[in-house]
Amino acid sequence: MDLGIAGKWALVCAASKGLGKGCAQALAGEGVNLVVTARGADALEATARELRAIRAGIEVRAVAGDIATPEGRAAALGACPQVDILVNNAGGPPPGDFRDWDRDAWIRALDANMLAPIELMKAVVDPMMARGFGRIVNITSAAVKAPIDILGLSNGARSGLTGFVAGLSRKTVARNVTINNLLPGPFDTDRLKATMAGAAQAAGKPIEEVMAQRALQNPARRFGTAAEFGAACAFLCSAQAGFITGQNLLMDGGAYPGTF
Description:
Elements: E1 9-13, H1 18-29, E2 33-38, H2 41-52, E3 60-64, H3 70-78, E4 85-88, H4 103-131, E5 134-139, H5 152-172, E6 177-184, H6 190-203, H7 207-216, H8 226-236, E7 248-251
């Protein structure tokens, strides 16, 4: 299927690796020009080179910076001639006990996982509506659907973003600007490996064993891949997805046991 977005410009956040990179790769394959941003300059430049090789003729601009800061957002937006597609993404806050989190910990979580995406949407949504096309995808977490007790910072910040999107997305769709959220469960990323490494150390087991056991707990009997996550993101960004807005697409291999 031709997704009808070749030649568009996309800003993809936290795109140097993991799910953000998977989204950038899928969009590059559709002929989308990219501005990719992440905090690590070396990894970001390496990813940009990979993206340029995916499809001849696309332009890929790498902007290192922290999207949770005004300066990082301004640099990323300034590098993009126009933002037709926005993929909001940021690393999740650390796990822990809510009794140990002070105000600064909450503000950091809100800045990265709620307020930064809202500020980026604020910057691009009116021009998108004026042009009659826009696609915004927020990468959140399966914990929005099924909260995880030790991820309270993420549960709170990402749920706040979800509630905000529910209202805004109904105001923009008449101008062909959609806003949706992708909720990843267990995907084979560096973040998952880091989490599993901690669990393996605590259990005194090899990380390979712990990861294999964790994968088998999922109904799919495996972890998701960044490529299949990126493909779902690309479809939500497509011309054909103009009637999908305000939705929370759970991608967890069937782990969530509910009907709704």
